[in-house]
Amino acid sequence: MPKTVLLFLSLLTWVGSTIGAVTYDEKAIIINDQRRILISGSIHYPRSTPQMWPDLIQKAKDGGLDIIETYVFWNGHEPSEGKYYFEERYDLVGFIKLVQKAGLYVHLRIGPYVCAEWNYGGFPIWLKFVPGIAFRTDNEPFKAAMQKFVTKIVDMMKLEKLYHTQGGPIILSQIENEYGPVEWQIGAPGKSYTKWFAQMAVDLKTGVPWVMCKQEDAPDPLIDTCNGFYCENFKPNQIYKPKIWTENWSGWYTAFGGPTPYRPPEDVAFSVARFIQNNGSLVNYYVYHGGTNFGRTSGLFIATSYDFDAPIDEYGLIREPKWGHLRDLHKAIKSCEPALVSADPTITWLGKNQEARVFKSSSACAAFLANYDTSASVKVNFWNNPYDLPPWSISILPDCKTVTFNTAQVGVKSYQAKMMPISSFGWLSYKEEPASAYAKDTTTKAGLVEQVSITWDTTDYLWYMQDISIDSTEGFLKSGKWPLLSVNSAGHLLHVFINGQLSGSVYGSLEDPAITFSKNVDLKQGVNKLSMLSVTVGLPNVGLHFDTWNAGVLGPVTLEGLNEGTRDMSKYKWSYKVGLSGESLNLYSDKGSNSVQWTKGSLTQKQPLTWYKTTFKTPAGNEPLGLDMSSMSKGQIWINGQSIGRYFPGYIANGKCDKCSYAGLFTEKKCLGNCGEPSQKWYHIPRDWLSPSDNLLVIFEEIGGSPDGISLVKRT
Ligand code: GAL
């Protein structure tokens, strides 16, 4: 054959195999005409830095993943209406291209509602103020905004040729997120919204299938998928759809005030093997790498760390034995792929709680031997051979004979990551004065106003100010029985200052963000200045109509024990100031921090509302870095102008950290660590945010802490 013809022919086959359709049948997703058993893992691009991405993706590949799954974070991409941002940590196309370069597929979950413990579930805040809007229902303004954003993302992907049919890595895409339960609660408008967004997605003609998770009524051709700790019993809504698990929770998130959940690798592996032996064909770990909620990106009371006990830890290091155990599982599953995609299982009970599932086709045979007993190891006989099955485990036999993997037998060494202190810092401080009602940057309004409606979430902070006049005839001035100040706030945290002195701080929790401040306060004759700093700790990301939940001091605000009885100040005229002075001065930037006079001196006394700054040299080596903030209470951290996130070691993890066994059904409350300790004491500093020397570290402390106790740590 002449050379040119040969070249043409090989080019043809090359094109045929790379630019391929993605379809599905009852067995699996079909890529380039092949049914595939696919292992996927979530890595959310804005939760790490672009410099970290290649390594994370490589570690995912080495861990046996075929697909990287990510949500698309609308509020990161369109922070104000019509102004888009796709740079740095939000370089979505760059991230997808790196995945492609590594030879992996992408599942793009556009949402644009994402939940994800992400601020406002991914919705941009301006959306809240679109006239006539109601989120996630049959509402024209909402649908228009959603369609515009989804279309923008899809068009961007097409332009960059990122869909598989264009030769790109995207093989799947998700619309909405866990809408089923909402639809069930709101009824008819929910149903028509579902119909609408399904059709809207299909009309975008991406060339690859769309999925909807936790949505039983996903209309054809969309595939409904399962989320949970286990999904073996899930059944897609049509027999011709494959069984897909979009979120196998590899652990769970930490909330400020909560302990740190973990999920034993044996149980994660067991859940995956069980799903696969029950005809599952695609499983995604939510999350494979959780990362960090930098800046103000975390949802209500969600910690800055989004470690999640994932196979790759927050800092980008592999977590053993979880990562290695799952890698070995993936290898075993992959060696069963030919049998899994071509045969239906025959099920035989080998004992009371033991079963064999055999996938046998003309050319392949794979078997799964399961022991569902939560405490007993059992010897079974399978095809005339004896097998030992540990409790709550599945053995995988890719040739129906030899066990290559058992989910409860971890053959990988475990190690404990350590935070090694490297150095402490010398600090300068700058006092943030409680706001004054008479300053230029304050506004007044009749009554108490919802926080986010004023701040538009540009800052966590809003001052509520009031003058309290005390007449010389007030009885308490003589008796010394101070009046009781009561402040009711919808959340999330409140610092009350009287005449410039911190009177107290109260904070809510993820379960109940609302708070009440109630204290007898030392008032003097004349005008007393009440300044209350109301602080949001992330906006809610989940719950029915979470987008409408309030924050801030909504009252009543009363003073009890006066001559007149109780004074209700709720309807008074209040003064408001948005944000901190230090924020408007950009104290966390080089320029801003040089614009004010900082004080050197003893910092042993815990001071509320204080800015601290220091500079430091980057330590040698390439171990990930962090800050041990345990000596501080609550605030925010910036390195070279970049926000590391909120810190809150003052919030102690409340919970029961009992010993936990891998065997038996897992829930997010089953295996907890860190009880009685700060929910989060270490804060990740990405190395690529540092220069070799003179790194500017700025901290804003709200309640009072000892910065001398802060240390730079490396994770080894
Ligand atoms: C799911 C949700 C995810 C994430 C997860 C909990 O219900 O779809 O976005 O929030 O829960 O970590």
Sheet with most strands: strand arrangement: 4-5-6-7-8-9-10-12
> What is the helix tally?
13
Low-confidence stretches: 1-18
Number of strands: 39
The 3D shape can be described as: globular
What fraction strand? Answer: 25-35%
Compute the separation of the termini in Å. 59 Å
Helical amount: 10-25%
* SSE class: alpha+beta
How is this structure best described in words?
The protein is α+β, with helices and mostly antiparallel strands and 716 residues long. Strand 2 (29-31) and strand 3 form a beta hairpin. Mean pLDDT is 96; it is low at 1-18. The structure holds beta-D-galactopyranose. Beta-D-galactopyranose is lined by residues 114-117, 177-178, 227, 247, 253.
In short:
The protein is of the alpha+beta class and 716 residues long. It has 13 helices and 39 strands.
Chain-wise SSE layout:
Layout: H1 3-18, E1 22-24, E2 29-31, E3 34-36, E4 38-43, H2 53-62, E5 67-71, H3 74-77, H4 92-101, E6 105-111, H5 140-159, E7 170-175, H6 180-186, H7 188-203, E8 210-213, E9 223-228, E10 243-249, E11 260-261, H8 265-277, E12 280-289, H9 322-342, E13 345-349, E14 354-360, E15 365-371, E16 378-382, E17 385-389, E18 393-397, E19 405-406, E20 419-424, E21 428-431, E22 443-446, H10 451-455, E23 461-470, H11 475-479, E24 484-489, E25 493-498, E26 501-507, E27 515-520, E28 526-535, E29 553-562, E30 565-568, E31 573-578, H12 581-584, H13 590-593, E32 610-616, E33 625-628, E34 635-639, E35 642-647, E36 672-673, E37 682-685, E38 695-701, E39 711-715
Parallel strand pairs: 4-5, 4-12, 5-6, 6-7, 7-8, 8-9, 9-10, 10-12
Antiparallel strand pairs: 1-2, 2-3, 11-36, 13-14, 14-15, 15-18, 16-17, 18-19, 20-39, 21-32, 22-31, 23-28, 23-31, 24-27, 24-29, 25-26, 25-28, 29-30, 32-38, 33-37, 33-39, 34-35, 34-38
Helix pairs in contact: 6-7, 8-9
The structure holds beta-D-galactopyranose.
Beta-D-galactopyranose binds at residues 114-117, 177-178, 227, 247, 253.
